[in-house]
Design a protein that fits this description.
This protein is an alpha/beta fold and 236 residues long. The chain is built from eight helices and seven strands.
Length: 236
Amino acid sequence: MQALGVQLLDAQGQALAPGGLALAGLARISLEQLDPRLAQVRFEIAADVNNPLCGPQGASAIFGPQKGANPQQVEQLDAALGHFADHCAQVLPKDVRDEPGSGAAGGLGFAAKAFLGAQFRAGVEVVAELVGLDSAVRGADLVITGEGRFDAQTLRGKTPFGVARIAQRHGVPVIVIAGTLGEGYEQMYAHGVDAAFALPSGPMSLEQACSEAPRLLRERAVDIARVWRTAFSQRS
């Protein structure tokens, strides 16, 4: 937003430094230099999550640890984003911090909604339309999808959730292959996913799992194919 003319100023009237923690020092937002051409532009944003900006399900709490933030940093980031949202509410017509998608991309979703009036769409829906996924799934015997970490967060609009919904409409079973299976992943069984497999076959470090991902992926693919073949042979 700063690149588009939004000024984020501290108590001395100086521009804030980049970074989320710097927002804790925000004293005033000026829209005087906001590019007026933006009012004539319609923004449509594709996002793969529908988290709010702040709180237990917000950008800092959910995605901060994934990027290496410790609990103290998560708390500081969440407070800084909340402080930013408070100031935005003073100069903008609508407070969108709790709207779905505001926590996407570290809070960029909030900024796009608040300053640009952006309309949100699920990213998987946009991509599915572009590649004709619905037509490809219709009539298929099996759909295999995946992501790095398959957990309860997947329910908030990530790719496997969108793919499973499409497959479910056509009665096609879905198997997920993921780097790890996290807490709450089994909730997806009520939303079109029939089975889920983690790549590692045993304890290993993240570095080892990443370096051996091609081999692990082949192994899990063989496992799935053997189970699928057995199921079909028993049915016939």
